[in-house]
Amino acid sequence: MDLHKVIQDLNAEKKRLERVIASLEELQRFAGLSVPPAPASGERRGRKSMSPEERQQVSDRMKRYWADRHKSE
Fold first, then answer.
1. pLDDT for 10-21, tens place per residue?
2. pTM score > 0.70 for this model?
């Protein structure tokens, strides 16, 4: 494996990517494009939040789980 050749290839690819990024940024600046806003559908992405009661139930369940695990050790 010629390490010098690999480094040269990676540097050439880096320069090419920098040119592409610069041209896209220039296009964005002239076109007045911006990142599109998130849809205002009212739905959140990700996990749902838990009520305090649900959180307490999970806490109690995990305490029992770990107590049982430590007993068996």
1. 999 999 999 999
2. no
Q: DSSP label at 21?
A: H
Q: Are 58 and 50 in contact (CB under 8 A)?
A: yes
For residue 37, the surrounding DSSP H or E stretch is none
3-state secondary structure of 18: helix
CA dist list (Å): 6 to 14, 15, 18, 20, 53: 12, 14, 18, 21, 58
The residue whose two tokens read 């050749």 is 5
- Report the distance separating Cα 20 and Cα 26, nearest Å: 10
Q: Which two tokens stand for residue 19?
A: 């040119």
Distance CA 73, CA 68 (A): 9
